[in-house]
Amino acid sequence: MSIANTSDSAMTNNQKASMAFKVMEEIGFSKEIVKPILKELWNVYDGNWQLIEEDNFQVLADAVLDYVEKKTNEEIGTSLKRMCTENLKDQNEIKRVKVEANKLHTPFEEKSEESSQLRRRKRNGKDIVLFKSAHAEETPPARKALTGICIKEPVVKDLSRKLDNHLERTAPFIDDDPQPIAVLQPSHSQFTRNEDLVPQEDYSVGNDSGGKANREDNVFDTQIIEVANIPEVSLDSLEVDSSRLYTAIGSQGFKMPSLHSFLKAVQDNCLGSYQIISPDFTKLDLLELMKDIYQCFLEFGTESNDGKREKRKSVSTNLCLLQHNSNHRAPNGLVSRHHPNHRVSGQSIGGMERIKHLPSSQPSSSCSLADPQQHQFNLDDVQPLHYLNDISKGTERVKISVVNEFSAEKYPPKFDYIPQNTVYQNAYISFALARIGDEDSCSGCFGDCLSPNVVPCACARETGGEFAYTREGLVREELLDEFISLSREPLKHHHFYCKECPIEKVKNEVNPEPCKGHLVRKFVKECWNKCGCYYQCGNRIVQRGITCSLQVFMTPEDKGWGLRTLKKLPKGAFICEYVGEIVTNTELYERNIVSFSNKRHTYPVYLDADWGSESGLKDEEALCLDGTLYGNVARFINHRCSDPNLVEIPVEVETPDHHYYHLAFFTTREIAAFEELTWDYHMDFDDENHPIDAFKCKCGSKGCNDVNRNKRAHSKALVIRH
Ligand SMILES: C[S@@+](CC[C@H](N)C(=O)[O-])C[C@H]1O[C@@H](n2cnc3c(N)ncnc32)[C@H](O)[C@@H]1O
């Protein structure tokens, strides 16, 4: 990698800065990341370029790496952050959020006082600057990972909002809200993909070009926010803080705003910067709702009488809908899902149901904000709500909601959600670093292996010397098409036949049947712990977990629960991996016998990609994944015979030993919001000896094997009869 000589004293500050950006770009850091850090350095070194340029900008590279390291720590704390984002509504807790506006002096701005919040540290004999919270000294160690985040922000008035924005950016895939009837999210982000250091965000819906223009305009119009001492969060503190409202109303000088000015404020401060994604809910609907809320507020403020309660009920039910989900909209407009005792009829206004209560034979359990008498608070209501909001129980980076619009079954049958594969008992897996050779890692790499102008490293070897992923975080199209072809037309591809097939041997140890064949698989290899690149390197996608908005839902076609995307997805996007217990082939066989007699099905996948490469495979090396009792969202993905929108790809992460690998699902084409996600289980509907009963397939595809098999059987019967 060539690093230019930059010691020409005749160069202007801007030219030197450009040179610094260029050098950093070459090692994988974009200008957007480097710019604020360079500003800090320039500030700390009192504009002395010589110190910054020394050793080919070593000090700058160190500071950028520190920044990246912090981002990685933040990733680890995402679950906490998610709660913090909610908790930040409590203004008392953001006392410690400090805004240091316009304190920096840079080559590009007027000089001002140096920020007292900067911490200097010696590295390679030089001062380098780190960002430090004013309260870091008192911070307990467990919270330190979240201190000292220093970022730039455009000027905004509301601090809590600003902090929310910050958290959103640092963890851009985290959906902090329960999946609402209408998803509100900022319509533009101030940061480019590289600043966020997460490639997939490029394809998220709603990143309009206006947002990009805004980003560039604001590059140096910055403030520094310091997030210090993120508070411990208890569930109690997730309540809306009404004390501020009461204080404001009780204070002298409080004046009730007019409806017009209230709506205008909502429009100016909220609707301009948020985008409603659900096609069923428009900004007009939101204004309607705000109007209702306002009227409710007025009624309470003026001690309204009982006659007005009916109105309030309808408002509060709308709020319930907003809070709980769009989930409860049955196609006929009936809205009743969460509360089976509560019969309501719906009338659609611009896609959002306005609800009238019908007499019910049983007491209503509907949620009502307006009438505390009406809603008996019950702990049982709360527990399932958490579950419905996030079936992953907080273990994933995103919440995954559950919704049933078609039957009375509220939740899927019990299983334990695990975000990563876990050994059941006998499986042998070793993630020893010593077993990873130089040819299977890139310890010499630095930054992002997918940076332009960087020659692909050893980690691209499995995929023919080219990385599997694009800089947008998608599987390269030709490679994806190969995987699709392997999955859809397996007979056109190579198979290997084991001498002693574990699947057959477990059925009949003495006289096993010949191997039926295993598809020769291609692998994607990701960078991992022995690699020198950073955690946000573009060649680490599956290991970073689910980032898209998913929902478990009841399918209308009687396939049981299924999984769908809430946002449009491009071709080649990572959805999730198949997660389950890692069991040996024998353990799986034994489970299947038990579940067969109990009529309880397991849905295993064989990790058989390497079974043919060695003879005498031990039982603890012939592994499978079983998501029946322990699993992730993948256990809800239904089967589709001929044209599923997901394809499974074997991914090597922790070990080059292909006895164990990850099975990751990627989109085979662009997928619309709310479309069900499906993959081909490769079921043999004719195999009557299979321990698992094949289901009656309702995939609906033209090439449905089950339907075609039935048709074949039917016409055969007709031929015989004739
Ligand atoms: C891995 S689970 C998928 C989630 C499942 N639908 C549920 O409710 O938990 C596989 C089971 O889903 C059902 N299923 C999946 N795909 C189907 C299809 N195309 N037609 C009918 N049932 C299907 C079958 O009952 C099958 O045994």
From TrEMBL:
<keyword id="KW-0808">Transferase</keyword>
<dbReference type="InterPro" id="IPR046341">
    <property type="entry name" value="SET_dom_sf"/>
</dbReference>
<dbReference type="Pfam" id="PF00856">
    <property type="entry name" value="SET"/>
</dbReference>
<dbReference type="GO" id="GO:0008270">
    <property type="term" value="F:zinc ion binding"/>
</dbReference>
<dbReference type="Pfam" id="PF10440">
    <property type="entry name" value="WIYLD"/>
</dbReference>
<feature type="domain" description="SET">
    <location>
        <begin position="548"/>
        <end position="682"/>
    </location>
</feature>
<keyword id="KW-0539">Nucleus</keyword>
<dbReference type="Pfam" id="PF05033">
    <property type="entry name" value="Pre-SET"/>
</dbReference>
<dbReference type="InterPro" id="IPR007728">
    <property type="entry name" value="Pre-SET_dom"/>
</dbReference>
<keyword id="KW-0862">Zinc</keyword>
<dbReference type="GO" id="GO:0005694">
    <property type="term" value="C:chromosome"/>
</dbReference>
<dbReference type="GO" id="GO:0042054">
    <property type="term" value="F:histone methyltransferase activity"/>
</dbReference>
<dbReference type="InterPro" id="IPR001214">
    <property type="entry name" value="SET_dom"/>
</dbReference>
<dbReference type="InterPro" id="IPR018848">
    <property type="entry name" value="WIYLD_domain"/>
</dbReference>
<dbReference type="GO" id="GO:0005634">
    <property type="term" value="C:nucleus"/>
</dbReference>
<dbReference type="InterPro" id="IPR043017">
    <property type="entry name" value="WIYLD_dom_sf"/>
</dbReference>
<keyword id="KW-0158">Chromosome</keyword>
<keyword id="KW-0479">Metal-binding</keyword>
<protein>
    <recommendedName>
        <fullName>SET domain-containing protein</fullName>
    </recommendedName>
</protein>
<dbReference type="InterPro" id="IPR025776">
    <property type="entry name" value="SUVR4/1/2"/>
</dbReference>
